[in-house]
Write a structure and sequence with these properties.
Layout: H1 3-30, H2 36-41, H3 48-57, H4 64-75, H5 95-130, H6 135-149, H7 152-166, H8 184-222, H9 225-232, H10 237-248, H11 250-263, H12 269-274, H13 280-290, H14 293-321, H15 341-346, H16 348-366, H17 371-385, H18 387-399, H19 403-412, H20 414-439, H21 443-454, H22 468-480, H23 483-500, H24 502-513, H25 516-533, H26 535-538, H27 560-585, H28 593-617, H29 621-639, H30 645-654, H31 656-686, H32 702-738, H33 740-755, H34 758-768, H35 773-782, H36 786-799, H37 803-810, H38 815-851
Helix pairs in contact: 1-14, 1-33, 5-6, 5-8, 6-8, 7-8, 8-11, 8-38, 9-10, 11-14, 11-36, 13-14, 16-17, 19-20, 20-23, 21-23, 25-32, 27-31, 28-29, 28-31, 32-33, 32-35, 32-36, 32-38, 33-36, 34-35, 36-38
Length: 852
């Protein structure tokens, strides 16, 4: 199929995508609590006759299927420029008028900030990647991570308080074009004075995302052979970067840029709500608030059309940026023509598989109670038909556990033997789990309890009401499939994998720890993980306990001796960090590695002993176990310190400033933790009503809420990220590699999820579903994967056309082998970088949902 046919096919697929997305929008909005008819009845400005006319005009007194028919009849023709988008229930004017005005306002707000953030972010990402590990890279990463991590609504409120309320530099009221001066200069000055704060917030919020994606894509390209060739040819650094590296790194970057520009039409909900700016985002919020279905559906329609168009542009940008991506030939993997679809379906075995799939889908829709039975029958039929291949596979796996093979592994690869045995235990554990879930032996509650216990927020097994032999059998099966056993096996497998590759792992960790960003990142992760583990002993009160003090109480004052201890430790930390920054910027000699390791071991052991002491006092078993493990790690670090004393002292003299700065940081950290734990653990007992950060409106301790909230936020962010990255990576990998029908179906599914504004749907679902941690994990995880799928697919489209992939395919490498052993590792750096962004996005989404 040529390019013209591909364009026509993509347009047809886009129309189908819009129809499916709008159907989902119709369902979502009708799931909201309340209904428009009752809201119209409560409107004092509408008489009964007007209410009846509105209800009749929009079919609100008709069945949902009739309302849906009217909805599709009015909206789908609007794709081609005609149609009726309806009248707003709340504003009582045609929806087109409201959307047109708000859309112009949104473009004025979002487009300039987005374009500037793209230019700035890509420039920072280029500099960071090209100067990896140097000052430019550290500075760029710090800017990117800090700006990406700041919630937009918090930054908006901070800017308003600082620049408008306190400094009186900018007006508090939102910009209104109707009240601006009539002359051009006055109009521009008035607009800039009102818009500069929202522009600044959006610019800061977006810059980090583009910088991190650009840096990750460039780092992947800089390790390619053609970059070494370009350097060997004597090309300048500018030519190497701009003519060789950047063009080959633009596939994932172009995906992100195209999709973000398309998403600008959705506005910036958080910024528009805080600044009371009359844009599309604020219009969506008003529509949800007033259950204004025509307004919501029309707004989503505009957003859907624009984002689908942006996806089309992103698809064809791949073709422009990399001709190896054969869009015009249906993105086939090789030049060998596949057998036509109708001939493949004639195969009786394939027809049977298709029949079984349709049978199970029909059972889900018509008779969901019989789904387990049909699934078991389908599996048994497939096992019978594939009995020879299944028997060969099982015999091959069992032979690997023969005495001779195990003896060989024991003699040569002891850690691989451990991993081999753990694979067997994990198989038994997971087979038992899957069998219980598929057979639905103990109900959905048992399955949910297993999942929640696995992520650390539940108890297992749950009460089932069984007794006698049935209860004993349930306990035995639950013990075999216990999530703690799964966690232990996975942990031991990871440990055996690390120890089996000890030299490579140590080299990788040494290279990571020796960089400033690696040290900073490790310390930051350790801090938050420590808060999550030791939160129960750090929090002085129960975070949900009311009236621990007077409502809205200010932070309590510290006694003089404690204040001096905290001031001394804080001063040492600040002075040490400032001195270390000076040493780094001035490129002074670094502290000896042995000295740094010695201090790291001492600090690790000291922190573990302090936290372990308070864990023993509070009988916090998890804290005691964690402290013992940290002490072991600290002694292991100390045992690795090997250096000649004279050489050690000579190195210290040449790197005095760097060694002194690290020593001050270490001493300050130990003193700060010791004095802080003394204040936290002792003051509420010695001084009743003591609150470090004060209390809220219900008299609850703010510091305790913050500490325990870190644990909940980390669980939500990490679990939602795992769900998002699993779905997004698998979808992008399969879609990009196979192309054709699989690519079309998966990308249309991705487009459907992508065109629905995720944050708005999260707010809607959070209003529908019962409020809980599980609801937040489900909502964030399910609606955050489309961008990951798009980014991974774009990179896979390029990698699968490289020469080494064609060579592996030519020698008989299977699709699964190629994807698992070659393409997935090549995409891994981009996936890791995107995982960091998705984790931050998941945590920010949880914060935003709490805010709204």
């Amino acid at each position: 199929m040529g390019l013209r046919g591909t364009v026509a096919k993509r347009i047809i697929q886009a129309v189908i995508t819009i129809w499916i997305a709008l159907s989902l929008d119709f369902v979502f909005f009708h799931l909201l609590p309340g209904n428009p008819a009752s809201l119209l009845a409560r409107n004092p400005n509408l008489g009964e006759l007007v209410q009846e006319r509105v209800i009749e005009e929009f079919g609100l007194d008709q069945p949902l299927i009739v309302q849906y028919g009217l909805f599709v009849r009015n909206f789908l023709p609007a794709i081609f420029g005609f149609g009726n988008l309806g009248v707003s229930f709340h504003f009582l004017v045609p929806v087109e008028e409201i959307i047109y005005k708000r859309l112009l306002n949104t473009l004025v707000l979002v487009l300039p900030a987005t374009i500037i953030s793209i230019i700035t972010g890509l420039w920072i990402g280029r500099k960071s990647a090209w100067r990896r590990g140097e000052r430019e890279d550290v500075t760029g990463l710090m800017i990117s991570l800090v700006t990406y991590s700041i919630p937009s609504f918090w930054l908006s409120m901070f800017f308003i308080m600082l620049f408008s309320v306190n400094l009186h530099l900018f007006p508090l009221t939102p910009w209104n074009p109707g009240t601006s001066p009539p002359d051009a200069i006055g109009f521009i000055v008035n607009m800039i004075s009102h818009m500069i704060l929202p522009w600044a917030v959006l610019w800061i919020a977006l810059i980090g995302f583009f910088a991190l994606i650009m840096r990750s894509a460039l780092l992947d390209v800089l390790s390619e052979d053609y970059m070494i060739t370009a350097k060997a040819k004597g090309r300048t650094e500018s030519d190497q970067l701009n003519k060789e590296a950047v063009p080959n790194a633009m596939i994932p970057v172009a995906t992100v840029v195209a999709l973000n520009i398309g998403a600008t039409v959705a506005g910036a909900l958080q910024v528009e709500v805080v600044f009371s700016y009359p844009g599309i985002g604020r219009l969506l919020w008003d529509g949800i608030l007033y259950r204004d279905y025509p307004l919501l559906q029309a707004t989503f329609f505009i957003i859907t059309v624009v984002i689908v168009a942006a996806n089309l542009i992103a698809d064809f940008l791949y073709y422009v940026l990399d001709p190896r991506i054969r869009i015009g030939s249906e993105m086939v993997i090789s030049e060998v023509k596949r057998e036509p679809l109708h001939k493949r379906l004639i195969d009786p075995l394939r027809m049977l598989f298709l029949f079984l799939i349709l049978l199970n889908l029909g059972t889900i829709i018509a008779y969901p109670n019989y789904l387990v039975l049909t699934a078991i029958i389908s599996v048994l039929i497939i096992c019978f038909l594939k009995r020879n291949a299944l028997a060969q596979f099982l015999l091959g796996r069992l032979k690997s556990y023969s005495i001779s093979n195990l003896a060989f592994l024991w003699q040569h690869y002891k850690f691989r033997l451990l991993s081999h045995i753990l694979h067997l235990f994990l198989t038994i554990n997971l087979v038992t789990l899957i069998s219980i879930v598929l057979l639905n032996l103990y109900g959905m509650g048992w399955s949910l309890s297993w999942g929640f216990t696995f992520i650390g927020i539940g108890q297992f097994p749950p009460p089932t009401g069984l007794d006698g032999l049935s209860y004993s059998l349930m306990i035995i099966l639950s013990s075999i499939a216990h999530p703690r056993i799964t966690q232990i096996i996975l942990g031991l497998m990871f440990l055996s994998w690390v120890l089996g590759r000890r030299s490579k792992t140590e080299g990788m960790l040494r290279q990571y720890i020796n960089t400033p960003m690696g040290q900073f990142g490790t310390a930051l992760v350790a801090f938050f993980v420590g808060l999550a583990i030791y939160g129960d002993i750090i929090a002085p009160y129960d975070p949900e306990q009311h009236l621990t003090g007077l409502p809205y109480r200010r932070p309590s004052e510290l006694p003089l001796d404690q204040f001096l201890y905290i001031s001394l430790s804080t001063g040492l930390l600040i002075f040490g960090f400032v001195m270390y920054g000076f040493v780094f910027l001035k490129r002074k000699p670094k502290a000896p590695t042995s000295f740094t390791r010695m201090l790291l071991g001492i600090v690790t052991i000291s922190i573990a002993m302090i936290l372990g002491y308070y864990s023993i006092i509070d009988s916090h078993i998890l804290g005691v176990y964690a402290s013992v493990l940290i002490v072991i790690i600290g002694f292991y670090i100390l045992l690795k310190v090997r250096s000649n004393l004279k050489q050690h002292l000579r190195n210290l003299r040449t790197s005095f400033l760097s060694s002194l700065s690290i020593s001050l940081v270490a001493i300050g950290l130990i003193l700060f933790l010791a004095s802080g734990m003394l204040i936290i653990a002792g003051n509420p007992t010695v001084f009743p009503g003591f609150h470090i950060l004060g209390t809220d409106q219900l008299g609850r301790d703010v510091f305790s809420q913050m500490v325990i909230g870190v644990r909940i936020t980390l669980v939500i962010g990490l679990v939602a990220t795992i769900i998002t990255m699993t779905i997004g990576t698998m979808t992008g990998l399969i879609s990009g590699y196979y192309g054709g029908l699989a690519d079309s179906l998966l990308m249309r599914l991705t487009d459907i999820f992508f065109v629905i504004p995720a944050l708005v749907i999260m707010i809607i679902l959070a209003a529908i579903l019962p409020p809980s941690v599980y609801t937040l994990i489900f909502v964030i995880g399910i609606f955050s994967w489309p961008s990951t799928a798009r980014i991974v697919r774009g990179q896979v489209l390029t990698i699968k056309e490289r020469t080494y992939i064609e060579r592996v395919r030519s020698v008989g490498g299977s699709d699964v082998y190629i994807m698992g052993k070659h393409i997935l590792p090549a995409v891994a750096p981009l996936i890791v970088a995107n995982t960091v962004l998705v984790t931050a996005y998941a945590i920010l989404s949880e914060v935003v949902l709490d805010f709204f």
